[in-house]
């Protein structure tokens, strides 16, 4: 194979973009094929904003679309972010100009992946996005390439470093949510708009992409059920721990006879489960296949250097001319997955109530659950110093989510129940 040099245009110079410029300036010959990767153009919202990498000697483009179309660029790297707007316009322009594209943009791929795959294939150029899921930890290539010989059945993981950091710090330091979020932003884990993180949308984009790769279908972000960590209280973190669990934001996808169910939910994970052990900003992933059984992967899911390493790995793929369909199958064969029937979901659950401390409350709660056929597995009433009422926590045996939700709605209406009950799933082991 003859080594050639590649001229690279980089649009978006935030945490990952400047991490990539630093890497390419230090290691221009990093690709196994031997050629040199040279940055021949950059674009960002602000040219003058202080950055850890000096861009004054690099050709500047005000418009990322012009950079994508430039004759001085062979490979376009999109690190702008956002599902639409300049990121999408620039990626489309590069593909139409017949240029390979590498992106870290999970929103773009989760929401427009199928149409972009068709565009890439029509122009016979690669569209690669390893950094979009789990940052530097190679989940995309693992699922799309190394596991293609298996029939995958389920995926469950911690896919947002900011939320994992927040939950870990709230538990270990008893710290307030806002305080920990501000630290995650300082450390460069959080998205420009942190509601993407704490609302669960970032994890939902990532699990949508993994589901598409694992089950050979087009990404269907609209079918994901999304809950974030913004409603998780310190009280629940403490109660869960007393019961032997840790609360994690779990993104999951399951292939069933009815279709594919994709969701992101705060979930109680047994303390000895590997997903409960992944602390701080770490990401972790369980994948289950018919032949392979379970695979567990853990690593950095955010931050400048790890995410830039994943972008670099995709650049190396382009430079070595590695080529395969964007989503495991050719774009013309991709169909949006049929969402599974959620009313059939059966889970074990955690229910936390805050009630007035008066006679008959526990009896009323357990009667409502018994009438609905919900079987209680464990029960805990534990006065807490700074709470207005008395917290009651119970866990259930496996129950239909729809049946449990209806019973909890009735419990919420009881006059002794002070606030909306908190319901969370318990992870399968
Ligand atoms: N905001 C993301 C996270 C960064 O916290 O995981 C990587 O996508």
Written account of the structure:
The protein is α/β, with parallel strands linked by helices and 429 residues long. Helix content is 35%, strand content 24%. The chain has helices spanning 15-26, 64-69, 85-96, 106-122, 139-146, 161-173, 177-186, 195-198, 201-215, 234-242, 274-277, 304-319, 361-371, 401-412, and strands at residues 6-11, 37-43, 75-78, 101-103, 127-128, 152-158, 225-226, 245-256, 259-270, 282-289, 293-300, 346-355, 376-381, 390-396, 399-400, 422-426. The strands form two sheets. Strands 6, 7, 8, 9, 10, 11, 12, 13, 14, 15 and 16 form an eleven-stranded mixed β-sheet that branches. L-homoserine binds at residues 135, 160-162, 189-191, 197, 202, 301-302. The site of L-homoserine has 11 residues, from helix 6.
Feature tags:
429 residues; alpha/beta; Rossmann fold; Dihydrodipicolinate Reductase, domain 2; Alpha-Beta Plaits; 3 domains; 11-stranded mixed β-sheet; 5-stranded parallel β-sheet; 16 strands; 24% strand; elongated
